[in-house]
Design goal:
Layout: H1 8-23, E1 27-32, H2 39-52, E2 57-61, H3 68-74, E3 78-79, E4 83-87, E5 90-94, H4 97-103, E6 107-110, H5 126-135, E7 139-145, H6 153-160, H7 170-173, E8 178-181, H8 186-194, H9 201-209, H10 214-243, E9 254-258, H11 264-279, E10 282-289, H12 297-312, E11 316-321, H13 325-335, E12 340-346, H14 350-355, H15 359-366, E13 371-377, H16 397-417, H17 423-438, H18 443-460, H19 473-522, H20 526-541, E14 543-550, E15 556-558, H21 568-580, E16 584-585, E17 597-602, E18 607-615, H22 624-690, H23 698-726, E19 734-736, H24 738-748, H25 750-753, E20 758-762, E21 769-771, H26 773-789, E22 797-804, E23 807-813, H27 846-856, E24 860-865, E25 871-878
Parallel strand pairs: 1-7, 1-8, 2-3, 2-6, 6-7, 9-10, 9-12, 10-11, 12-13, 20-22
Antiparallel strand pairs: 4-5, 14-15, 14-18, 16-17, 17-18, 19-21, 22-23, 23-25, 24-25
């Protein structure tokens, strides 16, 4: 068989895998059924051969558990010193990942992959240490027992009664370049345990009573062997694809069943199921939809029902399209490494076998190394189940009528052309009518048109007229040519229609998935993503879709359409589907009489929702290829929802980190800023007590009030910052005159200004602005207080307001030391106090609060250096 063209997606996957292997280290796992089978010894022995060959090999961590043979091997390697960790008042040793990365050997041995690290090191689990070593290009040897595989955790508990808490995710096992099974029969393992080669006597006696029972060890050994066999089978299939897709490697049995629309297909499926169970083999069922089949829509639906029946029995089903059935079946078999093909054969008369080829015989000839099992059946078994479906194929009487009309038109043309054309040319007119009918793709009407055309021609235009006698044999050849052309054109038309329909369906599916992915990528939020899923599924499958989400009590509630309610039966089906994570309803084996399909949306970590899909045409829902498309759409939506939730979790964790940082900064700022005013207040109180008899209390009392005001403002700033960060402040906008707002702010800062001259510059007519007066006054107070702190006592402040297009521009200018260029962008950040803050400065929150308030009003604030020294703070507000 000629070599098929490589799949571009497969080539890309291989290229990505090769690139990954070049960048990362290689992982080898020494795998066993239980402790004591010799994993560590095998690892050290193989590593010793690498060391002898000149490879840079070190020990990261290897546990000897007191075994002398292990300790002797350990002494032959360089070992990375472990780090000391204090845990519950004890000094314990743990694998030093940083030292291993710094040493960067070619190969490092890290024993006990499932080990949980002591709190205080970089990673929680040792497999995370191994993963980082691989990421840094270091090869790793490690050991693992079957009971530590995460996906087998429930199975291990059921077998041994022991809950294993230290597990390794299956994803890390997929990174392994090699898994070597270290096997030991249960009898030998128990003997090693009794001899004290695994545990000390006290632990060994306890292990014999619980985990190390012979039945447990046998079951664990079977699990380990099966896991390794599956891994090896995956490697074999990968190697086979790399070498050639055409060769069959019978390392494991894979059965293929070819079915059609007949009732005999049910017998084939049952037979294949029994064979697959007996051989412990995978089995696949296919149906080839070809133009040669000449099947009606009813027959095709029966074939799809047969596929659905096979899927219920556990088969993997597929629908193939192609003109050559044998070629499609054999190519599919080679691609999927099929070792046995099961096909049915109808017992026919010998003369029919001699004249007409049989599909089963053709497959046997083309099978080469594939075994073919032929199941024979009687003719009655190949009849379709007429009671299963009511035929909706319209009767073709209209096509036959078109044929008769076509013959009449051709006869009328020939009648007027007869005096001018030769009789043989008149045949071409009838042939044109036959071609026209054949192009409509209906074989019966086309043959009828050819036959009636010949009879009409012979009756009216062949001598002797009005007689059916055809004296010339050429007319018989003409009739045969007309039949042949009819058959050929009809076949080509039907083939073109099927190919066009298949292409149109594929394009529609591709376009649907493209639109889905594009919309999922541009939207966020579970509700929005679910609504996108509802819209696409409704459009693609012509059905009504409802989304049922779990409420606080775990019961499902309709979310996508609040106006539609489900009855008790539908709710119970949906709840069952949600609880068990299985499809139910239409097209399934669970409550198939329902008019809707209930599909659970199950994520990797939790259950998301249940989709109720109610088709408008239940007879055509849901075919296996439709189910595959539906599963693809739902998986894409689930993935988008999980990514969205993961991003939300990351965002929440970042917010928590920022809140913790903010909390620590707040506490340190409060402590720092409260120290000076409190110390001054204590000093002033001491002077007050000393000077009570002198009645000199005015100045100390004023200072106490000043420092108290500073503390009060500091607390206000903290509270306002927290409120702004939490987003709990709401604007209460009303029309206000800007002059009144500025005057209110000046009254508030009168005590702090301490007779500092403030010069006001207002345009003659300023319009009122919509604003929250309280917040805007607070922003102006912060700006003015900041200017007062950073300017000498006798220098004036300039406050101006002017109309600028559709904005009002307000500025506060001082004549202080100015702001450095490095501070211009940072001055409005939280807790930023400038490069040279004065002693009396606050916590660095005033300007941050000011910016937040201005932005809430739709304005903008910035700072500029003043020409003659100092700074100008400007902000604009929309009118």
């Amino acid at each position: 068989m000629p070599r098929s063209r490589p799949n571009p997606e497969t080539l890309l996957e291989q290229a990505d895998e090769e690139e990954r292997l070049q960048k990362k280290g290689k992982l080898k796992i020494f795998f066993g059924a239980a402790p004591g089978v010799g994993k560590t010894y095998s690892m050290l022995t193989e590593a010793l051969s690498k060391l002898t060959g000149g490879l840079d090999v070190v020990i990261g961590v290897v546990e000897s558990h007191g075994r002398k043979d292990i300790e002797i091997l350990i002494e032959k390697f360089e070992a990375i010193l472990r780090c000391n960790i204090e845990y519950r008042n004890k000094q314990l040793q743990e694998f030093d990942l940083e030292a291993a990365i710094k040493r960067h050997p070619t190969l490092i041995m890290v024993d006990e992959m499932a080990h949980t690290n002591i709190a205080g090191v970089m990673h929680t689990k040792r497999w995370q240490d191994i993963k980082e070593l691989l990421e840094r290009g270091i090869d790793v040897y490690t050991t693992l027992n079957v009971q530590h595989i995460e996906s087998l955790n429930d199975v291990i508990k059921q077998i041994t009664g022991v809950i294993v808490h230290e597990t390794v995710p299956d994803s890390i096992l997929e990174l392994a370049d090699s898994i070597e099974l270290v096997d030991l029969p249960p009898e030998d393992l128990l003997k090693r345990l009794e001899d004290g080669k695994i545990y000390i006597p006290a632990q060994a006696e306890l292990a014999l009573q619980h985990f190390f029972r012979k039945a447990n060890l046998s079951a664990l050994r079977e699990l380990a062997l099966r896991f390794t066999a599956e891994r090896v089978n995956q490697q074999v299939q990968t190697a086979r694809r790399d070498i050639s897709e055409q060769k069959i490697w019978p390392t494991s049995e894979r059965l293929l069943v070819c079915i059609d629309h007949s009732t005999f297909s049910i017998k084939l499926i049952r037979t294949a199921r029994r064979m697959a169970t007996s051989l412990q083999a995978e089995w696949l069922v296919i149906y080839v939809d070809s133009a040669h089949n000449q099947m009606s829509e009813v027959e095709r639906q029966i074939a799809i029902e047969n596929l659905r029946f096979a899927k219920e029995l556990g088969a993997e089903t597929s629908i193939l399209s192609g003109d050559d059935l044998v070629k499609e079946i054999i190519e599919f078999s080679h691609i999927n490494n099929i070792t046995k093909i099961i096909i049915g054969k109808k017992i026919r008369p010998r003369w029919r076998d001699m004249l007409f080829s049989n599909l089963s015989d053709e497959i046997v000839r083309a099978s080469n190394s594939i075994d073919v099992y032929i199941i024979t059946g009687e003719a009655d078994e190949f009849k379709i189940k007429s009671s299963t479906f009511v035929s909706k194929q319209p009767f073709l009487w209209l096509e036959y009528l078109y044929g008769i009309i076509t013959v009449g038109v051709c006869t009328l043309i020939n009648y007027f052309s007869y005096p001018f054309l030769l009789p043989t040319n008149l045949v071409l007119i009838y042939l044109l009518g036959v071609v026209f009918m054949a192009a409509r793709g209906q074989l019966g009407p086309s043959i009828m048109t050819a036959l009636v055309s010949l009879m009409t021609y012979a009756l009216l235009f062949v001598p002797v007229a009005l007689s059916f006698t055809i004296s010339d044999a050429h007319y018989l050849i003409t009739f045969l040519v007309m039949l042949l052309i009819t058959e050929l054109i009809t076949h080509l038309t039907m083939t073109a229609k099927k190919q066009s329909e298949s292409t149109r369906l594929q394009e529609r599916r591709t376009a649907a998935l493209y639109r889905l992915n594009r919309e999922l990528a541009s939207h966020r939020g579970t509700d929005r993503l679910l609504q996108i899923a509802v819209n696409h599924i409704s459009d693609v499958f012509d059905c009504d879709v409802l989304v049922l989400l779990p409420g606080s009590s775990g019961h499902l509630m309709v979310r996508s359409n609040e106006n539609q309610e489900l009855d008790v039966k539908e709710r119970s089906i949906a709840q069952w589907s949600y609880d068990l994570g299985q499809m139910a309803g239409l097209g399934t084996t669970t409550l198939p009489s329902s008019k809707s399909l209930y599909y659970p949306m199950q994520g990797t970590s939790d259950k998301i929702a249940v989709l109720r899909i109610q088709p408008k045409n239940p007879d055509k829902f849901i075919a296996p290829e439709q189910l595959h498309l539906l599963e693809t759409i739902i998986r894409q939506v689930i993935l988008a929802i999980e990514v969205d939730r993961l991003q939300e979790e990351v965002k929440k964790s970042q917010i928590e980190i920022e809140v913790k940082g903010l909390r620590s900064i707040l506490l340190s700022s409060i402590a720092r800023e409260l120290q000076i005013p409190l110390a001054d207040i204590q000093s002033l109180l001491k002077h007050l007590i000393d000077d009570l008899d002198k009645i000199q209390m005015a100045e100390p009392a004023q200072n106490i009030q000043l420092y108290s005001d500073q503390l009060n403002r500091l607390i206000e700033h903290f509270l306002q910052t927290l409120q702004l960060e939490a987003g709990v402040i709401e604007l209460k906008t009303e029309p206000h005159a800007l002059e009144k707002i500025i005057n209110s702010a000046l009254i508030k800062v009168k005590k702090i200004a301490n007779e500092k001259p403030i010069i006001l510059h207002f345009d003659s007519e300023l319009p009122t602005i919509q604003c929250d007066k309280t917040l805007l006054v607070r922003a102006l107070i912060n700006l003015i207080e900041n200017a007062i702190k950073y300017t000498p006592t006798n220098t004036p402040l300039d406050i101006s307001a002017k109309l600028n297009d559709k904005f009002i521009e307000i500025s506060v200018a001082d004549q202080g030391q100015g702001i450095g260029s490095e501070d211009l962008e940072k001055i409005f950040e939280k807790f930023y106090r400038g490069q040279n803050p004065p002693k009396s400065t606050g916590a660095g929150l005033g300007l941050f609060i000011c910016r937040s308030i201005i932005q809430m009003h739709g304005g903008r604030i910035w700072v500029e250096p003043r020409v003659n020294g100092g700074s100008i703070f400007k902000f604009v507000l929309p009118i």
